[in-house]
Amino acid sequence: MIFWIAYFFLSLLICLFVSKLFNNFYLRFTIFLILMTCLCSFWFVKPGNMELAPIFSIILLENSISDNNGLIRVIRPMGVFFIIFSISFFLIRNFFKS
Predict the structure, then answer these.
(1) Residue 72: left (phi > 0), alpha (psi -120 to 50), or beta?
(2) pLDDT tens across 21-48, in order?
């Protein structure tokens, strides 16, 4: 549990620092969401297995040394996390803006 908390905290810091490199708000927002989705979304390591891992590491393993189980199985949950992160960002931004 401590690993996941530290992992999400470090991922959030990386996303914030990289997004600060851009001046345009929309570019900053897009880069932040893409990095947040790539780093913070997680899925099952192998089909039928109960172990979870970050999707970024699963993609790296699928393309290099692991059995090819298909990248579409990790791209779908990554899209769902992208939608969740973007909706929550807009809700938080509108809540604090008013």
Answers:
(1) alpha
(2) 999 988 998 899 999 998 888 888 888 8
